[in-house]
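Q: Protein A?
A:
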Amino acid sequence: MIVGLLSRAVLMSTPLLYGSIAEVYAERSGMMVTAIEGIFLIGAWAGFTGSYLTGSLLIGLIWAILGGLLLSALYGWITVFLRQHQVVTGTALNILAVGICAFFQRVIFGVPTTPLTIKPLPQLAVPLLADIPWIGTILFRQNILTYALYLLLPVSIFILYRTSLGLTIRSTGENPEAVDVAGISVVKVRFLTVLLAGIMGGIAGSFYSIGYLGMFADNIIGGRGWIAFAICFLGNWNPKGALIGTVVFGLAEALAIYMQSLGGQSFFPNELFIALPYLLTIILTISRRSYNVPAKLGEPYVKEN
């Protein structure tokens, strides 16, 4: 039971870590990507639709990336270039994403009498490593999207803290005037980090439709984009903190799924476990006493003449 629970926790942590790492990069540059919920949803829909229509999970993943990229580009254009309010713009785009997915789902598939399904990404056992007791089952019997994170996480930490690119991104969120004086375009840096958030958010969303459930529903994301957004705050804008946060939330969601599978055998109502990840978000946010907030987070940059 414990091994199975931890293995599922790693699985359910995967999309949250994609989203939270992307949010860390964007917010370090000063951009709150509040359209993350919509990006997740577009990624889930595009990933499923591409996979269902073509029969290829790879094409579905590419569609998911493109969907997330397009929505993030729209968000970046409005907030970076037009300098509009980031929270208001993100909220509007989240609502727009719901309408777009519902509309095109109806246009393309009509109203099917039975749910449309695909075969999700398979679990791949890593030779030798998968045979290690406990650890092998937990870490090395996952799908390809989870394995990609094993490389992506250390690379993201290295780039952010050990390269000139990472220094530029962090400086853009702390002192954009200094970045501008150095001859680097603040607008370009911020827009590119928003696009990165779109790419990774699209992958995160596609995890739910083609990497786990093998289907699409209007409520498939169910606020998990906002959880990834919150993990960025709770992790203090650090990929390492994001990792800890996603494991905690992944474990909470895995526990919720396990308790639901017990049906009426649990003393507590199923609704309590369904709400557990969201209750945990509220509790941890309230209990956190200090944040290392980027100085210019959420503030549009206006170049002085």
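Q: Protein B?
A:
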Amino acid sequence: MLSDEINRATPKTQSALLEAMQEHAVTIAGTRHALEEPFFVLATENPIEMEGTYPLPEAQLDRFLLKVLVPSPAEEVLTQILTRTTGHAVAAPASVLHRDEVMALRALCRDIAIAEPVIRYAARLVTASDPAADSAPELVKRSVRYAAGVRGGQSLVLCAKALALLEGRAQVAFSDIQRVAQPVLRHRLIRSFEGEADGITTDQIIDELVKQVPTRPEAVQQAIQGG
């Protein structure tokens, strides 16, 4: 499902979408209808026009796996867009994967191995995003109001597994967690008033987390350096 400019939908519509996102079902006149798998939601948000829009509640933002920023296209990309959209209609792309293959790959993604030190690193990143945590960097304590939660940690691990699968690897690396940290966490960190006033972006906060949170506990690092 593609929800274009989701922040223009009314709160009642956004609330109804939560059932589809979380339960993969819709309820109509008291009857529950399961949505055929694979089902997922893609949504766009217009950051420019704020009048007449309804910001998404944190509970709904947390259910989106990733937030991808789409910058203004460069000249070469814009030229291709203009060429394709102002000429004759092009042929529809050929199918490369069928439903059963997509479902098999989705199941296989969860079978990608992740060692305990790597999954603990993901947990430390999420924990350190809480301004009340002892391990939180100073920037987090100053600029974050609400941290990433359990879904943020789950999404870090699942996206890192998907990245490893796409690259033909059977095991998740520390670098996979770091590579997916921004798209996974940027919509889950809610900035404080001070953070907004200082112009600190969530991407800057995540960069600081990746920089400050060690991939291994300090005791292990010292043992490695000493050995």
